[in-house]
Specification:
about 260 residues; 9 helices; globular; alpha+beta; single chain
């Protein structure tokens, strides 16, 4: 079980992040088209790591995908333990005749019981060998599971040495703001516990017991959630006021408003 995709906001200057990549990975960086809303981008010519910065975002954004993702995640976690995860994919491969159908049969009742969205892509006839994919969970949720016939996909890309029965099970995590920092220290196996139903899938399919880890932000009182929403919405205005008038004046204004 390993990371197959890892992206995060790094708590350091772009120059420090670039120096870190150059120090830990041989090769060089080349210019890359930035993703929105960043203004600049670089890509490592061997591993494909990307680093974006500039624009409205004060912190650099790091992205790794594919076979080097676990190595990249290990490096980022060691150098920047306080980073915030934007997305992490956890992959587990298996190769067996009928493996796709076997795993679908294990996941299906768990997903249906949890009421998560289920989506199929491809040709339902396995003899067509076009490759089938099952998605469990919506694109908007923190946790989504993808099961697909990796070998058939590889063969369609020209890798004829790939086994036709090679399948990949992926947990795709896009943590909400309150859990971005938490995910920075979670192992690939631990991430299966980010939802109750994915924890059950881990136990059923992978024989890996991963306790469910509730989202602490969902336990907040209505008042706490309202204040949190207000602060996030007006954080920019508050920051500008404090820069111009100072914290003491800001808190005096808040106190006056409450007592009015």
């Amino acid at each position: 079980m390993r990371f197959d995709y890892y992206s995060a906001t790094l708590p350091a200057a772009q120059s420090h992040c670039l120096a870190t990549i150059n120090h830990h990975f041989s090769g060089h960086m080349v210019e890359d088209r930035p993703v929105k809303p960043y203004a600049h981008g670089l890509r490592h010519h061997e591993t494909g790591f990307r680093l974006y910065w500039g624009g409205h975002n004060p912190l650099p954004y790091f992205v790794a995908s594919g076979e080097h993702s676990q190595r990249a995640a290990d490096c980022i976690r060691d150098v920047y333990p306080l980073h915030r995860v934007t997305r992490a994919d956890v992959a587990e491969d298996f190769d067996e005749a009928g493996g796709f159908d076997r795993v679908v049969a294990l996941i299906e009742p768990i997903a249906r019981q949890a009421g998560v969205e289920v989506c199929f892509m491809g040709d339902p006839d396995p003899s067509k060998k076009t490759g089938r994919t099952m998605y469990y969970g919506s694109t908007q949720s923190d946790v989504r599971i993808c099961l697909y016939e990796k070998g058939l996909h590889e063969r369609s890309q020209g890798n004829l040495a790939a086994s036709e029965t090679w399948c990949r099970l992926e947990l795709r995590v896009r943590p909400r703001k309150q859990r971005k920092g938490l995910c920075a220290s979670m192992s690939p196996a631990d991430m299966w516990g980010l939802s109750r139903w994915s924890s059950q899938v881990s136990a059923s399919v992978l024989a890996s017991v991963c306790p469910f880890q509730p989202d602490p932000s969902l336990r907040l009182s209505t008042a706490d959630q309202a204040v949190g929403h207000m602060l996030r919405q007006y954080a920019g205005s508050i920051r500008r006021f404090i820069d111009e008038y100072g914290e003491e004046q800001f808190f005096r204004r808040v106190k006056d408003a409450i007592n009015a």
